[in-house]
Amino acid sequence: MHGMMDGMAGMVWGMGLVWLLVVVLLVLGVVALLKYLLGGKR
Mean pLDDT by 10-residue block, N- to C-terminus, for the chain (42 residues)? Predict the structure, then answer.
């Protein structure tokens, strides 16, 4: 029982890490796109 709980916690933690990475990449992509669009017009 205890081992299963530990496994679940590890899976949830791993998923959280993956989502955090995805969010960071999305934010960086949006910022880069905005900089490109705003900077490219001038």
Answer: 74 90 98 93 64
Tokens 């959280």 belong to 16
If we measure between CA atoms, which residue out of 15, 31, 7 comes closest to residue 39? 31
Cα–Cα distance, 22 to 15 (Å, whole number): 11
Rg for the chain, CA atoms, rounded: 18
Domain that holds residue 35: 1-42
Count structural domains, the chain: 1
Model's pTM, two decimal places? 0.60
